[in-house]
C-alpha cells in the first residue's frame, strides 16, 4: 500500500511524499458502552486502517485530499479552526486546531489519506484518522508528545471539535494496539495491561451490517446522559466518580435509588458488562476460547435487552452466528445502532460462513452484509 500511496500522492500533488504513516481501526472484543463510565474495555487493533502520506509546502496552507472521498479542501495555516460541516476532513482539521494551541507548525502541508475501514461501521474510522494525523504531526515535526498524549488529544478533538461524547477507548486502541494482543484498559485511570489473544484455530470475522451508524446523529449521547442520571442518583447515598466503581453486589444494595426503569436498565448493563471484561481476560489467559465466546454472546444479549443499542441488523447477524456450528462467539462491536458485529469463526469456513450468513441476512433484512476476515494488528506507526 505504501507504493500505491506514493504513486497517488505524486499524481495528485506533483511531488512525492516525505513520510508515510498507518493507523489501524479497532474492534472492541468485549466491554461495550462502559468506556465513558470509567470501566474496563478490551479492544484490539485490526489490519484495516488509515494510510496517510505527507509533504511540506511553501504556500502556508494545509491541503486535504483523500482516495475515498471526492471532497478536497485547502485551509490557510492559522492559529485555530472551526468545524465546517460533516465532511471527512473535519477530523484531521480538528487535530490541527488542537495542536496549534500549543505548537507552531513551520510549513504548510500536503496531505493524502486513504482508508479501507468501512465508513460508519463502528470500526473507529474517525479515531483512526484523528490518531493518524496527530501521530504524523508529532513525528514529522518532533513536537514532543508522549505516546499516551496522542489518544488523549484525539479524544478531545472528537469531544470538543466534532461534538461526540465518546470515551478514550477507540483512540487508545488504535494508538497502542499490538499484534495478537488485546488491551484491557481502565478508562478511568488509563492503566492498561496487554493480554495474549492468540485465536488459534479461529479467525476474527468482522460483519458489516451495511447500516451506517452516524454516531453524532444517533442516540449515543442520550445513553451517556442516562448513565450520568444513574450516577447522580446513586450519589445520594454513596460517593462515586463513575458507575464502574461499583461491583454487582454493591450495585444491588443501592440500585433502588435509580427511579427510572429505563435508566436502571442502562446502569445494570454497565455494571455487568464491566464484570464480563474481567472474566474474558481470565478466559484468554487460560486459553479458553469457548468461555470467551460465551461471554461475547452474553454481552450482545445485554446490549440488546438492557442498553437497547443493537437493532434488527446486528441481531440478525448474531442470531445466525449462534446457530452456525463453526462460530463459538459473536456480538455487536462499537456503539451499535448499525455498524459491525464480530465473530470467532473456525479457520477454513470463511467462504461457507459468508455465503450462508448473507443468504440468511438478505432474507431477513433485504440487502447483503459485508464480511471481512482480519488479524489482530499493530497500532499507529510510520511506514
TrEMBL record:
This is Galactokinase. It catalyses: alpha-D-galactose + ATP = alpha-D-galactose 1-phosphate + ADP + H(+). The record marks 26 as: Transition state stabilizer. PROSITE patterns: GALACTOKINASE (PS00106), GHMP_KINASES_ATP (PS00627). One of its GO terms (molecular function) is ATP binding. The gene is galK. One of its GO terms (cellular component) is cytosol. Its main location: cytoplasm. Pathway: Carbohydrate metabolism; galactose metabolism. Its EC number is 2.7.1.6.
Amino acid at each position: 500500500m505504501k507504493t500505491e500511496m506514493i504513486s497517488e500522492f505524486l499524481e495528485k500533488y506533483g511531488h512525492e511524499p516525505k513520510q508515510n504513516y498507518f493507523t489501524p481501526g479497532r474492534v472492541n472484543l468485549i466491554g461495550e458502552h462502559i468506556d465513558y463510565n470509567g470501566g474496563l474495555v478490551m479492544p484490539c487493533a485490526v489490519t484495516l486502517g488509515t494510510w496517510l502520506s505527507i509533504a511540506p509546502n511553501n504556500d502556508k496552507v494545509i491541503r486535504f485530499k483523500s482516495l475515498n472521498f471526492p471532497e478536497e479542501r485547502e485551509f490557510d495555516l492559522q492559529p485555530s479552526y472551526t468545524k465546517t460541516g460533516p465532511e471527512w476532513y473535519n477530523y484531521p482539521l480538528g487535530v490541527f486546531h488542537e495542536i496549534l494551541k500549543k505548537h507552531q507548525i513551520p510549513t504548510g502541508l500536503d496531505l493524502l489519506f486513504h482508508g479501507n475501514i468501512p465508513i460508519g461501521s463502528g470500526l473507529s474510522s474517525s479515531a483512526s484518522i484523528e490518531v493518524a494525523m496527530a501521530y504524523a504531526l508529532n513525528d514529522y515535526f518532533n513536537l514532543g508528545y508522549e505516546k499516551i498524549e496522542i489518544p488523549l488529544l484525539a479524544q478531545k478533538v472528537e469531544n470538543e471539535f466534532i461534538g461526540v461524547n465518546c470515551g478514550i477507548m477507540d483512540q487508545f486502541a488504535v494508538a497502542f494496539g499490538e499484534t495478537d494482543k488485546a488491551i484491557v484498559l481502565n478508562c478511568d485511570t488509563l492503566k492498561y495491561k496487554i493480554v495474549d489473544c492468540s485465536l488459534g484455530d479461529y479467525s476474527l470475522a468482522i460483519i458489516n451490517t451495511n447500516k451506517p451508524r452516524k454516531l453524532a446523529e444517533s442516540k449515543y449521547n442520550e445513553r451517556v446522559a442516562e448513565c450520568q442520571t444513574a450516577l447522580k442518583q446513586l450519589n445520594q447515598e454513596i460517593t462515586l466518580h463513575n458507575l464502574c466503581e461499583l461491583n454487582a453486589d454493591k450495585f444491588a444494595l443501592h440500585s433502588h435509588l435509580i427511579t427510572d426503569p429505563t435508566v436502571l436498565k442502562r446502569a445494570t448493563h454497565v455494571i455487568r458488562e464491566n464484570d464480563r471484561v474481567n472474566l474474558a481476560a481470565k478466559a484468554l489467559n487460560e486459553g479458553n476460547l469457548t468461555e470467551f465466546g460465551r461471554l461475547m454472546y452474553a454481552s450482545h444479549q445485554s446490549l440488546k435487552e438492557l442498553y437497547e443499542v443493537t437493532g434488527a441488523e446486528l441481531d440478525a447477524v448474531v442470531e445466525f452466528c449462534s446457530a452456525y456450528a463453526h462460530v463459538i462467539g459473536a456480538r455487536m462491536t462499537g456503539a451499535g445502532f448499525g455498524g459491525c458485529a464480530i465473530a470467532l469463526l473456525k479457520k477454513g469456513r470463511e467462504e461457507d460462513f459468508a455465503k450462508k450468513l448473507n443468504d440468511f441476512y438478505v432474507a431477513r433484512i433485504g440487502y447483503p452484509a459485508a464480511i471481512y476476515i482480519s488479524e489482530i494488528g499493530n497500532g499507529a506507526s510510520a511506514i
